Amino acid sequence: MTNTTQRWGTKRRERARTGRSSVGTGQKLSYLGRWLPGYLWQRLAGHRPPSRTHLIFALADHFEPAIVPEDGSARAPYTEQERRLEQWCHEYPIRFGAYRDAEERPFVHSYFYPAEQYDQPLIARLAEHCRAGWGEIEIHLHHGVEIPDSAENTRRQLIEFRDRLAREHGCLSYLGGSTQPRYAFVHGNFALANSNRGRGCGVDTEMQVLAETGCYADLTLPTAAFHLAQTSKINSIYECALPLTERAPHRKGRNLARGRAPKSFPLIVQGPLMLNLHPGSGSRRWVRIDNAALTGPNPASLHRLSLWKRAAISVEGRPDWLFIKLHCHGMDFRHEEATLGSAMQKFMRELTGGAKERNEVLHFVSAREMVNIILAACDGKEGNPGEYRDYQLKRGRPVLSDSQDPERSAEVLRG
Predict the structure, then answer these.
(1) pLDDT-derived band at 9, boundaries 50, 70, 90
(2) pLDDT of 362-402, one tens digit each?
């Protein structure tokens, strides 16, 4: 293979992974034209949350110890993967253990581990970290990069990884008396259900495959900036309105609402997508897209928090419970400052220290706990959302008692 061919192959893989290897004006306009009209309508509608709000934070960490940022198909040496993971598991509790929410819970990560990179010792170490109270492991998948994937192969990968996580590592969750493990999902290439024009997936029926293999929620969106898989529907929690067997059925959806249990799973749980008109002195741009990603150049801050709150992502009829789903790449050394370093520590210090003054009640949750609170909101539950972290989806295999009376959302999930 020539050097030119190798470089082309690397660029193609990176383009499929990020959707924006070399972004031209046309792609930028297509991306903005897809969601900007809806964004402007949301801003004009002016639905601001109440003065006192419960902020429910979940961080979807695309957690890849093997990541080589310059080449999406390469893998770091195994000793480097071990070093990265051990450093994380050792340093994270030390650096963030002091920052607690209203229930004295620490800020946790949901570790979306790539199915195609399964490694028993690495997962075992991460599972140990999670059992100590620092997060939960969920499912992440990169596929269809070199050639389009198939529904059969996607199903096989998801089931094999799901069952390994559940049986060998005690991860994932269960509903009622079901023995099928349930999981949350992020698409590693953002091309959920083949939504990136056939790149980085290839499976039109992926949403149906996810539903049949136990996925209760997808947390992929929003995409990376200028990614062609971005949907026009933004800043929402919803169920797909189109048949799950169609390509990208999540491009249209019905918002979840209080008093109406969702009927279609996986739910789509989006993070904030906003325009930042005051990106700060370190930026050369007068406007910046805030897609809820924690990165080295753009770490969390109180200013960004104000944007995330204005996105007002909630279950309709429960505007005082705001869901703030962020995402990051915790193992990417380029973003260490924003995930493990002083920038994130400063944000956590200011977030927790000033919450009372800002009239906020903080809840730090995993992806599973966030979805449980969403389901509780749909079922009309009141009071402290932190009480519903284990509302339906529970870690471990629960034993049903004769006196249990499942709520409507549980009945739908079970079906």
Answers:
(1) very low
(2) 999 999 999 999 999 999 999 999 999 999 999 986 554 44
Do 89 and 126 meet the contact criterion of CB atoms below 8 Å apart? yes
Query: Which residue type, as a one-letter code, is found at position 107?
Result: F
Q: Is the pTM of this model over 0.85?
A: yes
> How many angstroms separate the CA atoms of 384 and 363, rounded?
10
H/E segment holding residue 369? helix 367-378
DSSP 8-state secondary structure symbol assigned to residue 387: G
CA distances from 13 to 3, 117, 147, 229 (A): 15, 16, 10, 16
18: confidence class by pLDDT, cuts 50, 70, 90: very low
CA distance 298 to 293: 8
* Phi and psi based region of residue 298 (left: phi greater than 0; alpha: psi -120 to 50; beta: remaining): beta
Q: How open is the CA angle 30-33-39, to the nearest 5 degrees?
A: 145
Q: Is 164 helix (H, G, I), strand (E, B) or coil?
A: helix
- What is the structure's pLDDT at 50? 79
Which tokens in the block code for residue 91?
């340093």
What distance in Å separates the CA atoms of residue 252 and residue 249, rounded to the nearest whole number? 6
Which tens digits make up the pLDDT trace of 208-258?
Answer: 999 999 999 999 999 999 999 999 999 999 999 999 999 999 999 999 999
Residues 194 and 206: their CA atoms lie apart, in Å, by 7
Question: Cα separation of 358 and 364, whole Å?
Answer: 17
Angle subtended by helix axes 78-96 and 120-129, to nearest 10: 0
CA distance 142 to 140: 7
Q: Which residues contact 175 (CB under 8 A, 6 or more apart)?
A: 182, 392, 393, 394, 410, 413, 414
Place of tokens 């198909």: 73
Q: Which element (helix H / strand E) includes 80?
A: helix 78-96
Measured in degrees and rounded to the nearest 5, phi and psi for residue 176 equal 55, -130
Which spans in 170-213 are helix H? 206-212
Is residue 269 within 8 Å of residue 217, measured between CB atoms?
Answer: yes
Q: Which residue has the tokens 């999981």?
A: 183
Tokens of 3: 């050097």
Q: Tokens for 304?
A: 């960004």
Element (H, E) at 8: helix 3-18
